[in-house]
Amino acid sequence: MRYVDPVHEGPADPTVVWNPWARAWWMFYTSRRANVLGLPGVSWVHGTPVGIATSADGFAWDHLGHAVIDVPEPTLWAPEVVVHEGLGHMFLTVVPGVFTDWEADRSIVHLVSDDLRHWREPRRLELSSSRVIDACVHQLEDGTWRLWYNDEPSGKRTFFADSPDLRSWTDRGQAVGEQPGEGPNVFRWRGSYWMVVDVWDGPGRLTARTTR
């Protein structure tokens, strides 16, 4: 499968979820401005909306447009989306501007939606620092939720937080030893939890057999 964003040609950080209202698979992604020439520094990865593509079978994808997100900041990265009890939840990295370097603050914001297109009620999560990115959310066996993310001031280690309801979160600190990386992705398979992390030389892999 290959998908190219027809607007900016730089899709990144995809997450795929079944949209029960549209009865289709939806892919959310960072729409990096790869085809905008002459931008200084790394400003081409700022000023980025969240793109949406749709598919009936998970293989052929069509561009749908951009998510309508109720935040004033212009730079939106790495959308993580889950649907639970008839409501969509997005955990989004938000950057307060367009910058030529990587030094700006960034936070993870929670939003909700009734259709996965329009997102409202932004709430900033209180996590380990003022520079956190790349949320991944997964429901644990006991019904609670866990969020993994990248804490940049720590040397880009993976941290985590827990929630009973996807709304109130308690930060738990560092999750993974001294291995730096970003973009953690967690899933459950054959009795274990698996985490795949971008370590800038292909993906790194970790497993865990317990939820706590």
Report what the structure shows.
The chain is mostly beta strands. 0% of the residues lie in helices and 54% in strands. It contains no helices and 16 strands. It has strands spanning 9-19, 24-33, 50-55, 62-66, 68-69, 75-84, 87-95, 107-113, 118-124, 132-139, 145-151, 157-163, 170-174, 182-189, 192-198, 203-208. The strands form four sheets. It has a five-stranded mixed β-sheet with strand order 5-9-8-7-6, with no helix packed on it. The radius of gyration is 17 Å and the shape is globular. 32% of the residues are buried.
Summarize the structure.
The chain has strands at 9-19, 24-33, 50-55, 62-66, 68-69, 75-84, 87-95, 107-113, 118-124, 132-139, 145-151, 157-163, 170-174, 182-189, 192-198, 203-208. By secondary structure, the protein is an all-beta fold.
Q: Layout of SSEs?
A:
Blueprint lengths: L8 E11 L4 E10 L16 E6 L6 E5 L1 E2 L5 E10 L2 E9 L11 E7 L4 E7 L7 E8 L5 E7 L5 E7 L6 E5 L7 E8 L2 E7 L4 E6 L4
Parallel strand pairs: 5-9
Antiparallel strand pairs: 1-2, 2-3, 3-4, 6-7, 7-8, 8-9, 10-11, 11-12, 12-13, 14-15, 15-16
- How many β strands by DSSP? 16
pLDDT < 50 runs, ≥5 residues: none
> Which class best fits the helix and strand makeup?
mainly beta
- Average pLDDT rating: 93
Features:
about 210 residues, mainly beta, four-stranded antiparallel β-sheet, about 55% strand, globular
